[in-house]
Specification:
single chain; 567 residues; alpha/beta; inorganic pyrophosphatase (n-terminal core); OB fold (Dihydrolipoamide Acetyltransferase, E2P); five-stranded parallel sheet; 16 helices
Length: 567
């Protein structure tokens, strides 16, 4: 791993003294200055009617409802797209739309978005309206093809638009040019929720109405899975969804996915959605057909949901094996590049003829984390094309970087789209080397070599008396944590009491912060993948960056250090 240093957060603490003292420090370092900012009640959401394009979207949906025409939801093949699709299908059916179906592009045949080919497939179902969720902003040709066939189109999306907007009947997106909505961070499922909430209110016309809040479990899962920034609006959506899940009021599919991942529903936190439910849901879109994941979320019978979740778990195990092999191959490619070229470029492109393009995004993310620079991983898409998945670092807006390359050398990229930290792209395989050079040059203009030094941002040291179950439980309950509102990480020096490998690749440690302190349990997941060649030994002194969590085992609860980095 590239050199990594620790930077500690600090801020003046002004919050109420009745909060746990460690939480007070953590919240202050995240810019929380008052207890009111910690109020995550549903009433604190930005008004539903303030989302740009929502009036046009609701008017179109009301017209379709009155005309009793069929509706087809076109989703994306990730967890945000799956939850968005399930939310709208469930919600529109409940509101009395007579015929609501969905279609997800097969990523291996059609790629991303509402393409003309997907429109032709959709037209076989004779829909009156197509609604895109978590896609559509780059689907100019597909929207035109639908309108030519007499099919109305509503785009709900959160991705950045291109140079021109698709000619849809209505577009609902907080990132439209000149948009006034005060949260640009809504996930695709958040946009779908706002649309459904506004439509529910309009159709009720002052009478009794079901609540769109019933679907906040889906919103929470999609929002966490898409790793969008947890601004206050998203934190409210996630917190409210988690309350529903913990109370046993989620759709059966979410409960089944959590159970498949070994996470108790009653204690679900955001990280359980991100590390247990979301990867299993995403596995369907990466290796097979996201329809399997959507059906899991649409299932009303718990037994059927469990069967589908088990199949998703099987696919996730297969995905992990493929990813492990590809990561090893990526490491070998990087080693050769380093030998051949010396210093690695700041913008990296990786490609292997045998790679699976449903998994390249994970490979790019792993390489980005190790090397602290933007990475694009490519896989073949037929004989002529390559599809790439890009992951970036703070300070480098990856979609803008791709846009700059496309404007400077328009022959290189066939298509691309995304946002600040992640993007997807397609190019002709003959243009890979030219694109590799152009991308490296573009990134070199956007960051300095010193920016590629790894930084662990820490909330400081915890004293021996703070390494307690009470502190761990307070931190666990203090979320939701996630992108933009990161889970607390602490650092400190510890003496090793003993160390061993468990589960083939995880390092289990017992540590002391000093000679008189109690022994602390710790675990470093995927330790062998980190490149260290020998185990720590009793008496060694380690510098750790870690999260303090609760370890539940055979009915007992103990504090546990989850090691992020060790030196």
């Amino acid at each position: 791993m590239a050199d990594t240093r620790i930077v500690r957060r600090s801020a003046a603490v002004t919050l109420d003294a009745d909060l746990h003292p460690v939480l007070r420090r953590v919240y202050a370092a995240r810019g929380i200055g008052s207890a009111a900012e910690l109020n995550l009640a549903l009433g604190g959401l930005l008004p539903v009617g303030s989302l740009d394009g929502i009036d046009e979207a609701v008017a179109l949906l009301c017209e379709e409802h009155a005309r009793r025409r069929s509706v087809l939801v076109i989703g994306d093949f990730d967890a945000d797209g799956a939850t968005s699709t399930a939310l709208l299908v469930r919600g529109l059916r409940r509101l009395g739309f007579p015929d609501v179906g969905y279609l997800v592009p097969d990523r291996f045949r059609f790629g991303y978005g509402l393409t003309p080919e997907i429109v032709a497939l959709a037209a076989e179902r004779d829909p009156g309206l197509i609604i895109t969720v978590d896609n559509g902003m780059s689907s100019n040709a597909g929207v035109a093809a639908a309108r030519d066939r007499g099919i109305d189109v509503l785009i709900t999306d959160h991705h950045l638009p291109g140079a021109s907007l698709p000619a849809a009947n209505a577009i609902c997106n907080p990132n439209l040019p000149g948009a006034a909505f005060r949260s640009k961070a809504l996930a695709g499922v958040g946009v779908a929720f706002y649309v459904l909430a506004a439509l529910t209110r309009r159709l009720a016309d002052g009478g009794p109405q079901p609540s769109a809040a019933d679907f906040l479990d889906l919103v929470a899962l999609g929002t966490v899975a898409d790793v969008v920034p947890l601004d206050r609006n998203n934190r409210i959506l996630v917190a409210q969804g988690l309350q529903r899940i913990r109370a046993g009021r989620s759709v059966p599919g979410i409960a089944a996915l959590l159970a498949e991942g070994g996470r108790p529903v009653s204690g679900t936190v955001a990280s359980d959605l991100g590390f247990a439910a979301a990867p299993r849901l995403n596995a369907a879109g990466r290796l097979d057909d996201m329809s399997l994941g959507i059906e899991c979320l649409l299932a009303d019978d718990p037994a059927r949901a469990r069967l589908l979740a088990a199949e998703l778990g099987r696919l996730n195990s297969e995905r992990r094996a493929i990813e492990a092999r590809m990561n090893e191959e990526a490491t070998a490619i990087l080693r050769r590049m380093h030998l051949d070229e010396g210093e690695l470029p700041l913008g990296l492109c990786l490609f292997d003829e045998a790679w699976h393009h449903g998994v390249v995004g994970l490979v790019a993310a792993r390489a980005k984390e190790r090397l602290h620079r933007p990475v694009i991983a490519f896989a073949p898409a037929g004989d002529k094309w390559l599809r790439g998945s890009a992951r970036s670092v703070a300070g480098v807006h990856i979609r803008d970087a791709l846009d700059a390359v496309a404007k400077r050398e328009p022959q290189l990229l066939e298509k691309f789209g995304g946002h600040a930290m992640a993007a997807g792209l397609t190019l002709h395989r003959d243009r890979l080397e030219a694109f590799r050079r152009a991308f490296a040059e573009e990134i070199a203009g956007r960051m300095q070599p010193a920016d590629a030094e790894g930084v662990v941002v820490s909330d400081g040291e915890l004293a021996a008396g703070e390494l307690t179950l009470a502190t761990a439980e307070a931190l666990r309950a203090g979320g939701p944590w996630g992108s933009g509102f990161p889970e607390p990480v602490f650092d400190g020096r510890f003496a090793v009491v003993d160390a061993r490998i468990v589960g083939e690749r995880h390092l289990k440690l017992r540590l002391r912060i000093d000679g008189a302190a109690p022994v602390q349990d710790a675990i470093a997941f995927n330790f062998e993948a980190g490149g260290r060649t020998s185990l720590p030994r009793g008496g060694d002194i380690l510098q750790l960056a870690y999260r303090l969590d609760v370890n539940e085992y055979q009915g007992s609860r103990r504090p546990q250090l989850v090691v992020e980095h060790l030196w």
